[in-house]
Amino acid sequence: xxxxxxxxxxxxxxxxxxxxxxxxxxxxxxxxxxxxxxxxxxxxxxxxxxxxxxxxxxxxxxxxxxxxxxxxxxxxxxxxxxxxxxxxxxxxxxxxxxxxxxxxxxxxxxxxxxxxxxxxxxxxxxxxxxxxxxxxxxxxxxxxxxxxxxxxxxxxxxxxxxxxxxxxxxxxxxxxxxxxxxxxxxxxxxxxxxxxxxxxxxxxxxxxxxxxxxxxxxxxxxxxxxxxxxxxxxxxxxxxxxxxxxxxxxxxxxxxxxxxxxxxxxxxxxxxxxxxxxxxxxxxxxxxxxxxxxxxxxxxxxxxxxxxxxxxxxxxxxxxxxxxxxxxxxxxxxxxxxxxxxxxxxxxxxxxxxxxxxxxxx
Amino acid sequence: xxxxxxxxxxxxxxxxxxxxxxxxxxxxxxxxxxxxxxxxxxxxxxxxxxxxxxxxxxxxxxxxxxxxxxxxxxxxxxxxxxxxxxxxxxxxxxxxxxxxxxxxxxxxxxxxxxxxxxxxxxxxxxxxxxxxxxxxxxxxxxxxxxxxxxxxxxxxxxxxxxxxxxxxxxxxxxxxxxxxxxxxxxxxxxxxxxxxxxxxxxxxxxxxxxxxxxxxxxxxxxxxxxxxxxxxxxxxxxxxxxxxxxxxxxxxxxxxxxxxxxxxxxxxxxxxxxxxxxxxxxxxxxxxxxxxxxxxxxxxxxxxxxxxxxxxxxxxxxxxxxxxxxxxxxxxxxxxxxxxxxxxxxxxxxxxxxxxxxxxxx
DNA sequence: ATGAAAGCGCTAACAT
DNA sequence: ATGTTAGCGCTTTCAT
Lengths: 362, 362
Known about the structure:
The structure is a homodimer of 362-residue chains. By secondary structure, the first copy, chain A, is α/β, with parallel strands linked by helices.
C-alpha cells in the first residue's frame, strides 16, 4: 500500500484507455466541485456557472467519463431507451420501418430495442402490466399492432409513451396513411383501364393483428368501384395473408371463379408477387391478360415491373420515432398540457409500371 | 404521519395492478425473510431451503414482483442485454439475420438491441473505448463487420462477449459459411452446363466493410473454373455492391465486353435480380441465352425462378445468438477455461431453378 | 451557484 | 440456510 491517499488523488490525466471507468466522483474531485454540480453541468441544467460547467465538461472529457446508464436509470427512473414492437422482423415492410426508426433513435442518443410481437400472446405479454415495460423503456413504437384501450391507457399511466404506425390511438402520435384512399386509387386506376371485372387480395381477416388496414383498403376499393357503377362483394375478395404464397393461392382462387377478374388489386406487393407467379404459371401475361396492382413499392416491385401504390416506409419509421421523442420531450420539458399528439398522414403515390394495362377486349 | 410503522406494514395483498412496483424488500417482508434470501431464491442460487424458495417465489408472484433491471445492472454489473451490430437494417439479408437473433435473445430473457454500423465511423464509434459498450450490453453480435484485432481484444478485456457472423475472430464463436465452397459450387454448376465464358458480379471491393466474403467466393469460383481449365481474371469480374442496381450495371458491363459471358455468378441474389433486369432489358432469356446463379435463396428468388445457392440466414442469426449466450454462460458459470468457442459452419445448398441452363451452342 | 446527503432497488461479501 | 451490511453510480431534494 504505497499510497494511503485513498480516492482523493484523482488528478491523474492517465490516458491509458480501458482501466476502470471514471465515475462522477472522479470527475467531481478532479474538477474540484461536488458530484451534484457535475451532474448538473453534464446535463445542461441551470444554476451552473459558465466557467464551472466548462471546467467540468473538460475534465469529464479528459477522463473519458460517461454517466453509467444503469445508475442514471435507477436514480432518475428514465431509461433513455426506445422499443419498437413489430409483428415480425422478417418481411420487407417491417424491417424497413424498423430501419427508419433505428437511425433516428440511435442518432438521438436513445438505445434502440426491438421485440417481436407476432401473436396476440406475445403482444399481451409485452403490454401486460406484469412485464414492467416502464422499467425497460421510455417509449414504445407499435407497428401494425393495435393495443386494447386498457393496454394503451395503462401504458400511459405507467409512464411509457406510445406512438403507433398503421393504427390510431387517441392521445398518441401516430403515423398512418389513408388506406381508404389507397383502395380508391387502385380502383380508379384499374377501372380507368376499362376493367369491370375486379378482384382483390386482402390481408388477414381471421387472426387480425390489425384488420383495420385491410378493411379500410377494401372499403376504399369497393367505394371507388361503386362510383363507377361496379358492385363488389365478398365473393370478389380472397385473403392472401400479406405473403407471397397467400397471394398466389388467392389469385388462383380468383381466376378459377365463374367470372374471373381481369384486374386484381393486391393489398401488398408481396401478395402481388404471388399473383404474378400464378399468372406465369398459367401463361397469362401481366398487364395484358390480367392486370395486377400492389401496394408498397417494395424494393423488388421494379424488378418485376409491378404497378403499385408507393408508400415511403422507412420514412414512416423515422417520423414515428421523431414524433415519439418529441412527445416525450414536450411532456417532460414544459407544460405538456395542451400538447396535441400529431396524427401524421404520409402521402402515397401510384407508380405505374407494366403489370397493369387496358382490359382485354374479350 | 398517521402510521409510524415505517416500511414494515407490507403485508398488503393488494391486487390492484399498476400501483408503485413491489420491490425486493416488499417481497422480503411479506415472505418473512431477508432481501438477500429473496435475491438468492429468485435467481435459483444454492443455499436456499426448498420450502423457503417456494414461499418467496409465491409471494413474489402474488406481488407481481420483478427485479428492476436497472438496479440489477448497477449492482451486478451485467446488463442482460445483447446487441447486434449490422451494416444496415434495410436489405433482406441483414434483417433476416436480425430476426433470427431477436427470437432467440428475447426468448432467453435478454433484451435485444440493434445498432446500425454502416460506415467505418459508426463501427468505430460503437467499438471504441469511449462508447463504454460494456455498460450497455453483455454480448455483441457483429454481422458482416470485422473489428480490428485491437477492438476485438479490447472488447474482451472490457467484458463484452463477441460473436461474429460472416467473419472469424480468434477466441470468439462465429457463424460463417464456407465461401470458397460457394464459389466452387457455382463454378461447377455453370461449367457443368457447358459454359466456358464466365462472368462474376462481386460485392464491394472499394469500401470493404467485409471484403473477406467476396474474396473467398471469388477465389472459390476461380479455383473451380481453373479445375476445368478455365482461367479467370479481374476482367471477368465487376463489382455490384451487393445491390440490385449494382448488379444490373455490372451485368451490362459484363455483357458489353468483347467476349461476353454466357453465364454469370452473382455473389448475392439481390445482384442477380439486377442481372435479370438487364437481361430482360436486352431481351435475353435467362437460363437460355445467359445463365445467372445467385447466392442466398432470397425470399423472392423463387418468384423469378432464380437458381441460387441457399444459405439459411435466419438460422445463422439464431445460432449466433445461441453460441453467444452459451459463451457468456460458460465463461461465468464454471471453469470458462478450456472452453473452445465453436466456429459454426452452416451448410449451403444449390437450388436449381430456371435461370441457369445449357450453354447456348453459338 | 454550489454542496451534503438521502436514496433508487438490487447484489455480494461477510457474518452467523 | 439465512441475515446484515456495504456498496453500485447516479439524481435530487434541501441547505447554504
